[in-house]
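FAQ
Q: What does a multi-component entry look like?
A: The components come first, one per line:
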Amino acid sequence: MEKELIRLDNIVMHFGGTEVLNCLNLHIRDREFLTMLGPSGCGKTTTLRIIGGFVTPSSGRVLFDGVDITELPPHKREVNTVFQKYALFTHLDVFENIAFGLRLRKVGDADCKRRVGEMLELVNLRGYDNRTVSSLSGGEQQRVAIARALVLHPKVLLLDEPLGALDLKLRKEMQLELKKIQQHLGITFVYVTHDQEEALTMSDTIVVMNRGEIQQIGSPTDIYNEPKNAFVADFIGESNIIDARMEKDYVVRFAGSRFECLDAGFTENEDIDVVVRPEDVDILSPGAGQLEGIVESSIFKGVHYEMIIRTRDFSFLVQSTDNQEIGREVSLLITPDAIHCMKKSPRPHGKEGGEEDA
Amino acid sequence: MRKRRTSLLALPFTIYALIFIAAPLLLIVVYSFCVSPQNGVTLTLEHYKKFFDFSNPVYLQVLWRSIYIAVISTAICLLLGYPMAYILSKLRPGLRQVLSVLFVLPMWMNFLLRTYSWMSLLEKTGLINSFLEAINLPAFNIMYTQWAIVLGNVYNFLPFMILPIYNVLIKIDQSVIEAAQDLGADSMKVFGRVILPLSLGGVASGISMTFMPAVTTFVISKLLGGGQNALIGDLIEKQFKTTGNWGFGSAMSVIIMVLILLAMNFTSSYEKDREEGGQLL
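Then the predicted structure of the entire assembly, as tokens:
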């Protein structure tokens, strides 16, 4: 495991009267691809701006490599940022945009040329040196912004929803490319997004945030398979979140039936949330499973069908490659490893993040 | 069809422009080549010859003085106006709006009145000198000098410098400034390498909007400059109103128009370059 590079220590942030970050503690390891994920207004961009030095936290400390940098202005920090709307310098051409940081450090012309050339190569923009910024497409501008930030060889690259303005296909390409760049350079990326799929695709570590608080920190598989609470379960992927009661260790009751599960350690008869992923529900012929139900709707999604199956107490979202006719009676089977028990917590308002973030 | 209808809608303005803009301009050009335009058309170059007579360069001297005073006035406007626009653009929106109205407020008063009031301020026995005298300081006599004209120009045309620069500055996106800081620029370098170059378009329009009225003014020079500091505008006015030499007045108008067109051509090429300056991409 790599050593810790950045530590956020009890960060509190107020804007006017509203609390944006509430006692945030986070450490970021060297060479890690860490994503802060959450709906708009959850404080993820503010956290990034605190690391970049653009805002000073109301209280708490920011440590970089063990040194307190809370009060250090941005131009003295060893991090660089890729901004949400690129923020390129329109009065300079592509070469001079990328060379901006080098020129400020009085890097010689020959060196400058070589390093900018390397960066253009890295982001696949060879030969774009003398193009004006406004003649570039959105994707190309994004690449220039990335090259401009990376040319200084920062230890950490901060990315604030960098792909938000691109179309879906381009976004997917850039996701893979960013991951490749991060691995190739071996530096830390701190990435902010509200797109859960983006987070799952690229990250080593995901930090799920909501209302200024960290909900869960973990690897993409951890976050997906073992969500800590209903908010995380709902925000990451589709899920059935069901009110349940833990009768005793390894036995949980929900949707009017008793199920075996793999979770223990709750108090007896504790009210909990159970999450069941739609792809983990098996559809059998009537009588063969644990819950009887009726197919209410079915939508073709390409690879699979997405069905809503109404049982007596709960309507399940189920994904299957086999279609079931609407109105057919079926039986559902939920195996112990498909059931994930969580402590009760407030439910999220909505999972769609907006474009803007506080 | 559609095209014809829209051009039909433009007809009133086209007629207006022809009668009140194109025709007078054309008349001025024609007059400038006529001996005595009131008595029929006889073509001549004598007015231009008279103006560019290097053996007796009175008129060229006046032109030179006009340009000199206008350049100095414009430079002072820029030196005062840029920082003012910059400070204005950094204020919080509410205060910013109030202050920008205050900047424009003097322009609600008649131009002549404003200039007359400077006369009473600057006079030998005016407000400023009475005050200086009261606190035993030497009198301040710039009335009827070139500096009084410069002062009048700066006072009257400063808003034309501030507003275009301010308009460009408020459009510069905060994230562009943050990007420069992020790449290692301290506040001086952020200004020198990002804000200033991105605002040059506004500076160019500010310069042309102050230089043009400053070089052609005749009221300010007449009221504050007295008789001995006549500018090209005064000369032109005199040809039409006193001397009655319309041909010569027209020739001088044409010369000054050409001069302004050249200056505008220079600055507008700059403005076009920077048109998108400071905007988000």
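Q: Is there any commentary attached?
A: Sometimes. For this entry: The two ends of chain B are 37 Å apart (CA to CA).
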